[in-house]
């Protein structure tokens, strides 16, 4: 069956061609072939709304914020704080002061590790993660545990790449000081039942950080409905700029946390004897902030809301279903990650071909995929492979592009017979 046949009625109104027009990079022709950009889990392309806003800000509105007495500074401050409101709305957070701008998910997690976990950890305490995590949601916890004599505990996943909930629950004990779980796995696409995991953790008195780096671009996130304590995501994966991301934290927790970095912009008063720190979020935004990046992120989040996260999720589901069925026909191809709930990420290996060779051959067909361990080496170890090929879908991808991928894989098989 053609991958373009039988579109579900629910997606009849999803005008992917109109959306594609908004992403100038999609007109690029690598090696003279139309670009098929399937590396969206690594980073997403930027719509014209974001590009134009960045250009306008730098060309006509650029200034430092918060302390300026001149008009440009006042206007830039309003735009920056407007971006904070866009992030609050995007996450359905109760308060603006719960939204901290950081460099990305990685910095958000490091901030919580340093300012929330470190002061609370004593020897013998534990931090619980899952076997699905990105290195960014492993290494900061490992480091702070090593420093404090605490232990990193890992809840296992099953052969489909789903967290085993009973095992997660069993590891929530009297010594657990925090659970840190990914919302969506970057390596396998598994969507974790985070609401249920948060419920289990809270029943054991354990606060929860959710790594939303892969969820924010493709799922509706409501931190109040989830009930988590911290949520992080990156701007560059949500069709926004690099160098900006969001840490959302519960007001009462942020209020108790010491600064992560110190310097200008995060103080009430400074003398050589002592410094009074500002309240959150300013307490966690030391130095000149990434003003343009934050404003660009605000535009990107508004763009996602206009397209509709539910529509994006449904579209990516459809692309994933088409791709999953089509690649299964390729001899010797094995999909890793077959959990019942999955986002638009397809990870696979092919017998007798290294993932890097697959990636290179696809690249020459214009198809950009990721080949490697995807910063999730423990996931690779769990499945006994050093690397996979990962095709990850975005809001602008099409069924025809899935067909191009499948043709490229047929060519790989032709060059490397099973
Ligand atoms: N968590 C997950 C699940 C990710 O996929 C990534 C990036 O790939 C990160 C965290 C880290 O995000 P960043 O590099 O933008 O800080």
Descriptive report:
The strands form four sheets. This protein has a seven-stranded mixed β-sheet with strand order 2-8-7-6-5-3-4, sandwiched between helices. With 418 residues, the protein is of the alpha/beta class. It starts with 15 loop residues before the first helix and ends with a helix. It binds pyridoxal-5'-phosphate. The site of pyridoxal-5'-phosphate has 13 residues, from helix 4.
E-strand count: 15
Task: Give the fraction of residues assigned to helices.
Answer: 25-40%
Question: Could you report the average pLDDT, rounded to the nearest whole number?
Answer: 96
* Spatial strand sequence of the major β-sheet: 2-8-7-6-5-3-4
Determine the strand fraction and express it as a percent band. 15-25%
List the helices and strands and how they pair.
Layout: H1 16-21, E1 36-37, H2 48-61, H3 71-91, E2 99-102, H4 105-120, E3 126-130, H5 139-148, E4 151-155, H6 165-170, E5 176-182, H7 194-203, E6 208-211, H8 223-226, E7 230-234, E8 245-249, H9 251-256, E9 267-270, E10 275-277, H10 291-307, H11 309-327, E11 333-336, E12 345-350, H12 355-364, E13 367-368, E14 370-372, H13 377-383, E15 388-392, H14 399-415
Parallel strand pairs: 1-13, 3-4, 3-5, 5-6, 6-7
Antiparallel strand pairs: 2-8, 7-8, 9-10, 11-12, 12-15, 14-15
Helix pairs in contact: 2-10, 3-10, 4-5, 11-14, 12-14
């Amino acid at each position: 069956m053609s991958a373009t046949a039988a579109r579900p009625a629910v997606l009849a109104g999803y005008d992917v061609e109109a959306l594609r027009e908004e992403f100038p990079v999609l007109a690029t022709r690598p090696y003279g072939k139309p670009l098929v950009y399937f590396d969206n889990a690594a980073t997403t392309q930027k719509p014209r709304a974001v590009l134009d806003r960045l250009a306008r800000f730098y060309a006509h509105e650029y200034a430092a914020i918060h302390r300026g007495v001149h008009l440009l500074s006042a206007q830039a401050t309003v735009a920056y704080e407007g971006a904070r409101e866009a992030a609050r709305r995007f996450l359905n957070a109760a308060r603006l002061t719960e939204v901290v701008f950081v460099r990305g998910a990685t910095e958000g997690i490091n901030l919580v590790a340093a300012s929330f976990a470190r002061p609370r950890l004593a020897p013998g305490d534990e931090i619980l993660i899952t076997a699905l995590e990105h290195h960014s949601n492993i290494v900061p916890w490992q480091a702070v545990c090593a420093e404090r004599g605490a232990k990193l505990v890992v809840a296992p996943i099953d052969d489909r790449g789903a967290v085993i909930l009973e095992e997660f629950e069993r590891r929530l004990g009297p010594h657990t000081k925090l659970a840190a779980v990914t919302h969506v796995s970057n390596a396998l696409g598994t969507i974790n039942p985070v609401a249920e995991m948060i419920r289990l953790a809270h029943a054991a008195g354990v606060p929860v950080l959710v790594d939303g780096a892969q969820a924010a671009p493709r799922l509706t996130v409501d931190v109040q409905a989830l009930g988590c304590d911290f949520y992080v995501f990156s701007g560059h994966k949500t069709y926004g700029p690099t160098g900006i991301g969001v840490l959302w934290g519960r007001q009462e927790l942020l209020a108790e946390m010491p600064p992560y970095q110190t310097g200008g912009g995060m103080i009430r008063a400074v003398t050589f004897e002592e410094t009074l720190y500002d309240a959150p979020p300013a307490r966690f935004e030391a130095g000149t902030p990434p003003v343009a990046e934050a404003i660009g992120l605000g535009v990107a989040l508004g763009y996602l809301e206009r397209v509709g996260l539910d529509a994006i999720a449904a579209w990516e589901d459809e692309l994933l279903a088409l791709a999953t069925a089509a690649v299964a026909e390729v001899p010797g191809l094995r999909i890793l990650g077959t959990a019942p709930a999955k986002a638009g990420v397809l990870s696979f290996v092919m017998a007798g071909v290294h993932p890097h060779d697959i990636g290179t051959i696809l690249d020459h067909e214009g198809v950009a995929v990721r080949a490697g361990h995807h910063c999730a080496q423990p996931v690779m170890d769990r499945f006994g492979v050093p690397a996979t090929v990962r095709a990850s879908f975005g809001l602008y991808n099409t069924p025809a592009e899935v067909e191009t991928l499948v043709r490229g894989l047929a060519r790989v098989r032709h060059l490397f017979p099973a």
